[in-house]
Design goal:
The chain is of the alpha+beta class. It has 4 helices and 5 strands. Helix 3 packs across helix 4 (about 150-175). The radius of gyration is 24 Å and the shape is elongated.
Length: about 180
């Protein structure tokens, strides 16, 4: 029996293990590469964070008799993420094309929190669309698997790897001048 019979028997396992080791090394190097890049902020956002919250009460509504909305709402939101998780704050929700949301009790929203001299100011930024986005990604991966089988799953992994490379390698390299 030859010494190479061991390698022939476990060839696929050895190749997959080496590929996983290379991928882990690549992701670790991406982490260290991105850690040293200083991104110049477009505006001063010190003390400002975006967190997920849920509307628990509507204090002042802006619904008119004809069904239209004018002005803004004042709502109480329970923070779901961040340093204020579980706390309830009063928040303003503007009626605008860019910011705010037509809130109802139970609506999940993204809020902007600002801290100034230990005073927390909270305003509704927009709806929390992350569950819908995750569902859409899951549906695409499911149909790739359903139609393509193992090759479909490999295609989804290749797409994810490409997206990671674009966001964490190519764009940072362009930003720093490579």
């Amino acid at each position: 029996m030859s010494d190479f019979s061991f390698f022939r028997k476990y060839k696929k396992l050895i190749i997959n293990s080496l590929l996983m080791l290379l991928m882990a090394g690549f992701f670790v190097s991406l982490y260290f590469f991105n850690r040293n890049i200083y991104i110049t902020p477009l505006y001063d956002s010190e003390g400002t964070d975006f967190e997920k919250a849920r509307v628990v009460e509507i204090i002042k509504d802006n619904l008119q008799k004809d069904g239209s909305r004018v002005g803004g709402q004042v709502v109480n939101v329970e923070m779901l993420t961040g340093p204020y998780t579980g706390q309830v704050f009063e928040a303003n929700s503007l009626d605008s094309y860019l910011y705010g949301a037509a809130c109802q009790v139970g609506t999940r929203v993204i809020v902007q929190t600002s801290v100034f001299e230990e005073q927390v100011s909270v305003s509704v930024y927009n709806y929390d669309r992350s569950p819908v986005l995750y569902l859409m990604i899951a549906v695409v991966v499911f149909f790739l698997w359903l139609i393509g089988g193992t090759k479909g799953v490999k295609s989804a992994c290749a797409l994810a790897f490409s997206l990671i490379c674009i966001i964490f390698l190519y764009l940072p390299m362009i930003y720093i001048g490579y």
